[in-house]
Amino acid sequence: MTTIDVAEQVMPGKADVLLHASIPTGWKRVRMHKLMVNATLGVLGIVFLLPLIWLVDSAFNTHATASLGAPALSLANFRAALAAGAGGAIKNSLYLAVVSTLIATAVSTLAAYTLSRRRVPFKSTLLLGVLFLTGLPVTLLLIPTYEIFVHLGWANSPFYTSLVLAATSVPFAVWLLKNFIDQVPKEFEEAAAIEGTTEMRILWKIVIPLSLPGILVAAILTFINSWGAFLIPLVLDANPGNTPGAVGIYQFMSANGTVQFGPLAAYGILFSLPVVVLYLVCSRWLNGGFAFAGGVKG
Amino acid sequence: MTALGGSSDVGLDRPQRRADKERFKFTTFVWLSPAGILLIALFLVPTAYAIYLGFTNLQLLGPHASSFSFTGLANLDRMVHDSVFWSSVKLTLVFVIGSGIIAQTLLGMALALLGQRAHISIRATVGSIVILAWVLPEIAVAFIWYAFGQSGGMLSEIIGKPSDDLLSTVPLLIVCVANAWRGTAFSMLILSAGLRNVPEEVDEAAQLEGAGYWRRLFRITLPIMRPTIMTNMILITIGTISDFTLIYAMTQGGPGNETAILPVYMYIEAFQFNALGYGTAIALSLIVIGGLLSIFYIRQLKPELGKAS
User: Is A23 helix (H, G, I), strand (E, B) or coil?
Assistant: First the structure.
């Protein structure tokens, strides 16, 4: 029971008066301290917010500059961004993100379940190898993959580019999902196995539903990663019709002599909105994933 | 984890379970193969191929584009005498350590600690803003800070010199600030989660003994969180060391290679100066640097690992 509760009981409705009459001297310092903490955090928040405010302000302002201007409400910048090909580029990003997420999530779930439940020869070596791959910079893969793709005629194909994006996400997804499935109790699977259910059905009807939060985290992280992909499509796909949003914005930035801040800001918002919405909708599961990562001791 | 799961298995039905576990099923191989094929074809083969290409004279166009050959240590020799390469190594270290490890850890820790004691509504609002900066695609972040660093941009107006083009006077600082702004959320999330795992009893006991806030922070909270902080640093290093989009979109490595960290320098050498072989060698050097940093972190972590076992 807090002091306020006690005060409310003694003198209903006048707790505040009662409290102020009996505040010990230390209390003022505690309150001052609380104020300082909240104020500092608030200032940090404003510093972090400023660039975002500029982006939104410039997107709706036809006379947008590199600094904040008087807010205006015009959709002209969005029309200019769409005229510069934002729509098609975002569709291309959607293709890369959806295809790579579906592939990466499916193969990672299957592998993670097998590594979690089955006897696999050299399992710890395999897991260590997967962990090693998560730390390998993607930059290293770029030139050899480009060479291989040119030789096999896989370059300039959104599907093969998605495959590369999927492969770069698989090591982390396998690692995350294996740890997640390890936490799911085995009793349901064992009961189903005794009743003669096939393992594919067990995976589909029991394991996947029970580990859905983990699968969603892996899928969302893959999606966000592929959505923003820049270097891999820049190198592997030179076909202008396949340009994804990130490359499109870059080309728009360096296209004309003067940078068109307004249309670019609008382009940036159009391109950012899908992942921001996705994050907001799914943030509950994602934060759970972080609690998990933060709990890793060493 | 396996040890924990195993202990519950030691029951009456142990022999039966064991028999079940020992059997290797052919389908195990089938189920692992989609991920296996993808990783082998698009991760392991390119990695092995990179190690070879790094020692060749492969070109993007020209005579050595299709008929390239093994050139021994020629690329390594060129690298050792390449002053741009060494300045690129230095820039990479400044970028990773300055904007990644120091700025993101300090800001993330500050936000986590303040959030722990602040009012829930302020914590939630500020947390969402910081996370929003992190969720934005990297290219959007690059564009925002590209605008902010220009003459007449927000940053130059804040410091009171609106005509300064900060992207050409202090380009490295601007890309570091941009990267810190973008990456802090990750540290904040990991460190907040770590902070929740610090047992309250220890802190309360110290408080009863009369230890002040800062003393408790440095003597109790931070030492307990050391493994989490180290894990966080490793993850930041992995994320930052291969960063390309942010810097390339903001500066293309310029002006005059002043922001050409290794991935950017690799791209410039390979796809602008035609030298795919040398570019691969630069990418390989990135692995060496990443490896050296990892060894450093693992050494730092060792005391905890030793205690745990």
Answer: coil
| Model ipTM value | 0.84
Q: Which residue of A has its CA nearest to B294?
A: A135
Q: Which of B42, B123, B192 sits opposite A164 (nearest CB)?
A: B42
Asked if the structure places residue A106 within a domain, the reply is: yes
Same-domain status, A172 and A238: yes
Give chain A positions within 8 Å (CB) of B38. Answer: 103, 107, 163, 166-167, 170
In this structure, what token pair is assigned to residue A144? 């050899």
Helix count and strand count (H, E) for chain B: 18, 0
Residues B32-49: what's their mean pLDDT?
93
Confidence band (pLDDT; 50, 70, 90) for B283? very high
The answer on A129 and A43 residing in a single domain is no
> Is the CATH number 1.10.3720.10 carried by domain B76-308?
yes
Query: To the nearest whole number, what is the mean pLDDT of chain B?
Result: 86
Report how many domains make up chain A.
2
Beta bridge partners of B70: B56
DSSP E strands in chain B: the ranges are none
Model pLDDT for residues B95-105, shown as the tens digit of each residue = 999 999 999 99
CATH label of the domain that carries residue A286: 1.10.3720.10
Q: What pLDDT shows up at residue A256?
A: 67
Determine contact, residues B174/B145, Cβ cutoff 8 Å.
Answer: yes
- Same domain membership, residue A257 and residue A163: yes
Q: How many CA atoms lie within 13 A of B101 on its CB side?
A: 18
